[in-house]
Design goal:
about 230 residues, alpha/beta, 6-stranded mixed β-sheet, 3-stranded antiparallel β-sheet, about 30% helix, disordered C terminus, ABC_transpr_LolD-like, ATP-binding, P-loop_NTPase
């Protein structure tokens, strides 16, 4: 039986700022992520993709419904080893060079032996060795996105949730980079959930979730993995 990494039942998220009417960002969502899944979340900006991923990874709690992580344990134990995020905006620590950013999750988890060697191997695998000593401010947007993904991969987590991880890459670079990410994820048994506007990226995933005004319009479409 396949391990269920995350299961959401009827979850919703409502934001209520003082003096304004409450806004329902998510409503009545049922979904689950299994070990080794490849899921693309598509939908227009503001449809709730990022909020859903933050809830699925335990970063925030929903205001209604229930979520648990049957194969991973309690919410407070998820990060940084079992679940990793790749955020849409800048997320690298400005005071650390690329090598330091990639090894940070390993050090936080107490896995210090060979951490820098593993980071250098990841950089070499993606032909990014020359970035090792650079600070985030010296990187292009596309380089920073790739480094953030390598940071997520370094602990070989059970689940990676990535928000537009190829948004600043040209189509050829994005395809080549995704090839390497999918290969590593398959080897390590990592489930991968990607929120994306890129149809080519979505086509590489086995399952497609379409968000529409805070609801999952389609959570069951299956694709044959590329």
């Amino acid at each position: 039986m396949t391990d269920v990494l995350a299961r959401a039942e009827g979850i919703g998220m409502r934001y209520a700022a003082p003096g304004t009417a409450p806004v329902d960002v998510l409503e009545g969502i049922d979904c689950e992520i299994a070990a080794g899944d490849r899921i693309a979340i598509i939908g227009p900006s503001g449809s709730g993709k990022s909020t859903l991923m933050h809830i699925l990874g335990g970063l925030i709690a929903p205001t209604s419904g229930h979520i648990d992580w049957p194969a991973l344990g309690p919410r407070e134990s998820l990060m940084p080893v079992k679940v990793q995020f790749v955020f849409q905006g800048p997320s690298l620590f400005p005071a650390l060079d690329v090598l330091g950013n990639i090894t940070l999750p390993l050090f936080l988890a107490g896995h210090t032996t060979g951490a820098r060697d593993r980071a250098r191997q990841l950089l070499a695998r993606f032909a990014l060795e020359e970035l090792a000593d650079k600070l985030p401010e010296e990187l292009s947007g596309g380089q920073a996105q790739r480094v953030a993904m390598l940071r997520a991969l370094t602990t070989a987590p059970r689940l990676i949730l990535a928000d537009e991880p190829t948004g600043q890459l040209d189509s050829h670079t994005a395809e080549h980079f995704l090839d390497g990410v999918l290969e590593l994820a398959s080897t390590a048994g990592i489930a991968l959930v990607i929120a994306t506007h890129d149809a080519q990226v979505a086509a590489r995933m086995a399952r497609l979730w379409a968000m529409d005004h805070g609801r999952l319009a389609n959570s069951a479409r299956e694709r044959e993995e590329a």
